[in-house]
Predict the 3D structure of the following.
Amino acid sequence: MQAIYRVAAATFHEAWRRRFLNAILVFAVLIIGSSWSLAYLQPGAELKLLIDIGLGSIRFFGMLIAIFLGVRLISDEIEKRTIHTILTKPVTRAQFLLGKFFGSLATVFSNLALMGIAFYAVFAFKAPGFMNKQPTDQSAGPAFSTEFIYANIAKAIGLTFVEMMVVTALAIMASTLFSWIMAVVFTFFIYFAGQAADFFKTLGNPQRGTGMFSQVVFNTVYGILPHFEVFDMREAILKGTYVGWDVLAQHVGLGVVYTVLILLVGYLAFMNREV
Amino acid sequence: MGRSEAAYLTPMNRQRGKQVLGWVMVVVLLVVIQPLAKLVDYNRTVLGMKSPTSITRIVDFDPTAISGVVMGAALGGFQGVAASMLWIKMEELWDSGKGTWLACMQVMRDVTLLDPHWLEPWKILGWHLAYNLYVETKDPAQQAIYLAKGLDILKEGISWNPDTYELYTELGWTYFDKVRDYENATKWFRAALQFPHPEYIERMIAHAYERMPDLDRALDWYDYCLKRYPNDETAKGATTTLRLRYLPAWRLMQAGQYDAAIAKIDDYLTAEPNGMIALHIKAHIYEQAGRDDKALEVWTLAARLSAMDVEAKRKVAELSAKLGRPLSAQELAPSFLLEQKEKAIPLAVPQHAKD
Amino acid sequence: MEEGTIFGLVGPNGSGKTTTLKLLLGLIYPTAGSGTVFGYHLGNPEYKRRIGFLPEGPYFYDHLNAVELLSFYGGLFGLGGAALAARSEELLRMVGMWNRREIRVRNYSRGMLQRIGLAQALINDPDLVFLDEPTAGLDPTAQMEMRSLMQLLRSQGKTVFLCSHLLKDMEPICDSVAILSRGMVRRHGRICDLLMSDAGRYRMRVTGCQNLPLQSLKDQSLDLRIEGEEITMLFADQRAALAAAGQIADGGGSIIELGAQTRSLEDVFIEAVASGGNE
């Protein structure tokens, strides 16, 4: 535990000193803040734009931070041979990998939290005005009470964190396998393919008249790809859907299993790797 | 671990053992994750947190839409953001007056492809096509094309968002107000009733029946409106007007006293010769009386009075064919609007709303 | 390896020094065979508590300063608090970094990196210290200091495992060496034994011997080589050498050099590598 904690703490501190990652954070906060000055738009569009830009930025820049942080963690240590001084101490490779993972997770979490605070600040200031403009004659239309939408946004940011946990694990796994540029390409590829996982399911649907072989291929791809799109709660917020804790727990569970799975593959690749 | 055990478990063997165990666990986890992923997928579908995007439906798409879809795929999970950004750009373009209508509408079209569950772009794009572009040109053929495109875009929007009243209502309104095709209007308005909806939709259905004219149904729907919302002043007013102005003639017609019915409706038409509803009712009475030539006369009058009275134009075409008369008013009825009538609406319109 | 000595593993580049080191440190695993350190299998984290390692051309988290760096490495051993602080100070003073402890690693010179590298290798007070090319790339003063630090470690009862291709640096400090070539140990033993394997032989260099009977000298010596005016001879012992020296002096020759034959580690090394190559 001590070793994991120490590696994690060092990773966290080092990450916060990476100018590139700081720049992404600053940029993200600026973009989120810029929605403060959104000009007048159609009444229906304002709330959507605010939420899209806010949550979309958190998700997008969170992903950039998770990927660019993760992909260098292992390969850099191997390349610069700092790993030699660490693995020759009583630290197993599993502990090292977990330390790296938790360190980056803490970094990603703190970054997301800062972006989330920026978004809440803008939202709390701007949204009430927009929400009043919602048509009032909708007898059973979307319910946009302030507390309700705040809770949904917090849940959405929470799910984004779970998603970024999976992305971090993916980036670290890639880092045990490839040089960092290759790892960036790999992680982006899997992330975007995972976003469109449903597409493979659609293609593998027998009703489409897909051949037997193609069905197996598409469904296997669908089964293996992490379904990143499930962590997107924007639709629920805009429709005013109540997302219960049980459903939320299922999402988190899915994210945790993905993370464990990906880290395990990363560890298996790292286990016998010459460093 | 005892030393003797360590003696024959060489590090390499232990490593291999761990590897095999690890990969077995990977496979087990991959299997375990499937039901969980399925459960999440199910719940998201039920809660409406998940909806197909242009990427998932790329296979269903017309080829011209592919650029937007490819863009969406490249942007991965961020189509929503991209759509919002594009929309802001479009608004700027629009407000600055620099962008042409067509350029703005192209951007709107891209937005609908990027974020097909955002209703605003569908509505506004449909409205621009059916209303604004329509008046930009004097060429009836061109107008017909714009109108048809406006209706099509709303129908495509509905195919993405079939579980909310909004686009059905928008389409119903376009049929009601712009096309004046009241039969289609009632169908689409009634489709909107399947979902939570504002109260004015039932009233719109009554209005449409009134103009068709089908006064019995119109009255039914007004009554239904008032039962649901007893304080609906608009419905109250409408039903009073209907009863006072048109219902006496209508009842006489139903009783078979056609001449009396015509006389009754003419009373009102003397005061207001251009009254569209009254003209429709008059023509309808002639039809019921079997006097198709007189009916054609009234429908033709109605069609000439309002360039947009599609109901009248269709009747003119129908009756001219029936009577073997040359269709003088043919050019007044853009052919596509007549075809619209034939198209089956791909929706089961629930009956419960009326019962 | 004997405890409390300095052991050198020498060999040309690519001879397997680094691989051997990595195996011993558990950075890679043997594909066949096995080995033990302190009775533990290679790679077992247990013995890592008792070893220290200074890699070749070390590189550390460069956003840390010396104290933070040692605190990080100490933490990996579960050290902390005042004990760790005291240990850090002791080591930093020992390697001469105490006054520069606030400087961040990214601004370090090569010598400073080597010093802090040694300090981190010793943070757990190890019984066995592995040093990979500890003197490579250092200026002469720093090399001297590094050597004296190694001797200091030996005096503290620690065993030092040196790995280098810089034979001149190894010779004066190693107690024993193993010569590695193409993955095989060619020679090993105490350094004095290796260097003294020709003990008792004498070597003499002379000039101005044109008038002397060469054949007689050849008979007396083990080996005789002529390079221009100069003749180099090798004798079995001191007595034979002195006898020949007398003859040469009588014959008008002049002795440039006369003394016991010694060999450098370099000689042993080249011989070992050459013989290895013939196999």
User: Anything to note?
Assistant: Residues 11-47 of chain B form the longest helix (37 residues).
